[in-house]
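The aim of this short unit is practical: by the end, you should be able to scan a pair of folded records and say something sensible about each. We start with the first protein, listed as its amino acid sequence and then its structure tokens.
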Amino acid sequence: MKTLTAALLALTWFVPPALADTPVAVVEDVGGKPAGVEFMDYVEPGKVIKLGAGDSIVLGYLKSCWRESIRGGTVTVGNEQSDVAGGTVDRIKVGCDGGKMELAAAQSKQSAAMVFRKAPGPNTPPKPQFKIYGRAPVVELKGGGTLVIERVDVPSGDRLEIVIAPAQLVNGAFYDLAKADKDLKPGGVYRAKVGDQQIVFEVDAGAKDGAEPMAGRLLRFQPAG
């Protein structure tokens, strides 16, 4: 019993605190003027969104991978999907790796040695922490900064370095590489760096270019400070 208790405590210790209040969905599109919600807002379970007859919203659930196109009515955000009263909703499953993406976001502030300590040798590329399903990531980096994305699974891989000013961020936090016409290679493994934070991810072999569903192509860095 003592051994089991110790093991459970150890597992609890490894759960990043930042995940406790993690939002469940991102607002991928807004039509009309619904109150209290904007493009690229995160929403948490229990949030109520009231849509007029001409209003619409698209929600991308980060873990369940449901993408909902909702028109009119009252929307109550759930853990995996929304409850819609008095309106219409179309749901499709999209490619996403949300649970692992959230864990990588929480780990991004840790040192590279801690996050990637399991790499077997200096010439072995780091194992990707999660997969994205679009060739052009959406990067969350509040305040802007220098974003470096380099391919790490092949010698002399592609490298992007982008200086992002706060004015270039959508909703004060998001930079969409699709809008900048910067695509990554399907099947490639990449390391993204901002300051002293880094995330390693894989681009799905079937990933397409352009503005694919955002829940499947987010790279989230923690705010500096």
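Turning to the second protein, read its sequence before its tokens, just as you did above.
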Amino acid sequence: MPFVDSHCHINFPELAEKMGDLLENMHGNDVISALCVSVNLQDFPQVLALAEQHPNIYASVGVHPDYENVDEPDVAHLVRLAKHPKVIAIGETGLDYFRLKGDLDWQRARFRTHIQAARESGKPLVIHTREAGADTLRIMTEQKAEEACGVMHCFTETWEVAEAALAMGFYISFSGIVTFKNAKALKEVAQRVPLERILIETDSPYLAPVPHRGKLNQPAYVKHVAEEIALLRGISLEEVGRRTTENFVRLFKTEHIAQ
């Protein structure tokens, strides 16, 4: 039963220094591939290097909405970097009104830049939204994000936000948060999203799922997210693994995904 971690940050130092063990643990837990997601342009070469070194690791390119005072991407630069065959997505991008307050026009402008780059490059978007559902959907609509498609990663918003994103052709990705006991509303969303639009992820090194909550997360633990989805929906773990892997391949066009 293959699994794919659709969103992780294994280039971060606490995971990169354990790369051998990390890859071995992935293999031991049937996690056949992972998407290492870029958060700024400065560290993008590290992300790309991992993807080039390991056939089952892919990369994205983008600047996270939480990163202030960093090199600001423009559309042409993102499109150029996205031409690399191991770069399969634009992002992560989006809006975060939880960590940052005040005038966030720069965050919204950056989000628009990423959507334009995704449309131009033909690569899907990896969207981060936290306490910013209405503005995220508004900008997605204004910028015709449905032409690029993509995924709402580490989803924690309401069913109404999920429904609107689904209507634009987006996928919904669940992280270890869905395994937390207090995530009742999110569990209900996970029961309602069509199975053909679900992805699973770790967002490692963060948000380790139960039974590893509070510990350093890693792609191998995405299996626990799949177990929770299976439990919530009353289907087999094998079906969750198969369907979420198929969804990843369909969205990110990784037909030759490493086995």
